[in-house]
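REVIEWER CHECKLIST
Item 1: Sequence provided? yes
Item 2: Single chain? yes
Item 3: Sequence as submitted:
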Amino acid sequence: MTSDFNGKSIVVTGGSLGMGLACAHRFAAGGGKVTIVANDKASVDEAVASIGDNAAGFVGDVRSKHDMEAAVQAAVSRHGGVDILACCAGIQRYGTVVDTPDEVWDDVLDINLKGIFLASKFAIPEMRKRGGGAIVAISSVQAYASQAGVAAYTASKGAINALVRAMALDHAGDNITVNAVCPASVDTPMLRWAADLWKGEGTAEETLEAWGRGHPLGRVGKPSEIAELVAFLAGDKARFITGADIKIDGGVLPSSASSFQIDRRPVMKPLPDFRSKDFLRGHMREIMDFYHPICLNEEDGGYYNEYRDDGFITDRKTQHLVSTTRFIFNYATAAVLFERPDFAEAAAHGVRYLDEVHRDPKHGGYFWLMRGRDAVDATKHCYGHAFVLLAYATAMKAGIPGMDARVSQTWELLESRFWEPDRELYKDEISRDWGLTSPYRGQNANMHMTEAMLAAYEATGEVRYLDRAETLARRICVELAANAQDVVWEHYREDWSIDWDYNKDDPKHLFRPYGHLPGHMTEWTKLLLILERYRPQDWILPKALLLYETALAKSGDLEFGGMHYSYGPDGKLYDLDKYHWVHCETIAAAAALAARTGRERYWQDYDRLWRYSWRHLIDHEYGCWFRILSPDGVKQSDIKSPPGKTDYHPFGACYEILRVLGEAQ
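Item 4: Structure as written out by the authors:
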């Protein structure tokens, strides 16, 4: 190494890690006296120790005017002045201008840009005293070609280049050169932090390798390579270079920025052991991580309902009864499983909104749809009230006070308003004042009421809930199914006769799609086997098997894999799309049948459907499940979670599988 910096005093901000540390080493190796500035004392001490006598440390924050003035004066006191300033402090945070919090924006701009402004403000007067100097700032290729979702970082790097040009003009007369170095991906702690964030089910190392392949040279840069360019620009051989922003990018920009951006996708890990309790618990944690804590609506209460794939909240006002109650279910279940008091409080947060806002103070019951704290659809739906009972019962299991009374009150409400004792089934839809009942009757509300009754029985031990679950299961799956080829039909008239044409012209209706739904058949399989745990009956297992086998036979896609959504009485497929919840419920049903019968073929179904879901339905970039795919497996929207989804189906399926495996109570 040449002694190209003998007698020079160099200040390196951000000098304790990454490119800054590499620059400090390079300057010191060239004989320079280096002052390392960073805000963490331990890392500053470690950096100084790694260099030796040619380095000294200063613990300070580049955002602080006081600290930057003191850092420069420390270099002056120790080394007689300042000749070179290398501005290497920087952070990266992800987000668009819409979803980046103000404080994050400020942090990125303050550290990346203001830090250069402040360090230069105090270093330039000292350089003048010594007849000139050099300033080199670390910028980025993202000043030219931005990655998506890094608005603050990209803005800061573009501004650095502009600031460098301005300072170069302003201080050329002082014999001070000012230049920027613009790297692409460099193997630093910051890049490894990003790789860990974006690794999906792969490893950070695999992600770094994938990002490296996005550079024509086939790898990411080394901090020492950046340090050599910084040293050149700061040295005597570059005195005719100023106001330049020099790219050191492995060929990324010449090959266009597209590869740089595309390679930010996570690398998928080999298929996990889907039968492992650790995998199931881990998948549930990932679902919670997607929603928590951003789903908590502190302004209106309750939860935000609608999310883009990347977790951005696209509607901050709509609150659906089904979303509120399903979030409560998720949080209360997770509170028990993971022993998380903060999840229990988040469930209680939702219960308060359910009690105070969804509940109709005048007529009783629960509003279907809210806008903030105002009801925009006050209809009383049995489907929604089933989830009210499920939410209260699950919250009771989590130990939230007062839920035993809420469970009992909901039972009484259902008995007085929705229950038809002569039919032994629940009505579907009633006006706000309970004066007008829709003639429509449906199995879906009664299926979820069965689910809720089983949960209420588990929470309270009161046999009336188990009795009701058995009655509903027998009526839907045996007696009414006898008129529909012994499987479940969705839609009925007021007298509970089959309505074969209901929504035939609207087969994709959100809550009442046309036809037989294989996903509901397998969901019934799951519920029947839960019922059998508490009340064994000879008819339950044969019916569960029939529903499951029919569902897979009718819906299985032999070409692309997965399951189609619906078919008609004639066996014709009506909706060929792939819905996430269908696969979730069928996976849970397969596990339940495998455990109940001991037959390996159901575990094979389980693994096969998990593999399809892993490859197509699960978002390995941001987490959770895509809602709907085309028949060939292409997602249909960038809205991952509209009102009503909450990923309750995959979360609940994993929990039920853990119960089947004896890993949860």
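Item 5: Key structural point noted by reviewer: Residues 594 and 600 are 6 Å apart (CA to CA).
Item 6: Recommendation: ____
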